[in-house]
Amino acid sequence: MSAYPEPARCTEKVVKVFALKYKKELSTEEKAYLTLYIEKLNRE
């Protein structure tokens, strides 16, 4: 079990902050890339 939250939950939070700060929604592809990147960071 990882000490970090699951990547999907992290992605949701990043998407919300991004939308508030930049007034733009991330695309499905951008969300998928972000989730994969967070998963990679969790493995390191």
Automatic annotation (TrEMBL):
GO biological process, one term: regulation of DNA-templated transcription
SUPFAM superfamilies found in the cross-reference section: PTS-regulatory domain, PRD
Domain PRD: from-to ranges: 1-44
InterPro entries: PRD, PRD_sf
Protein name: PRD domain-containing protein
Lineage of the species this protein comes from: Bacteria, Bacillati, Bacillota, Clostridia, Lachnospirales
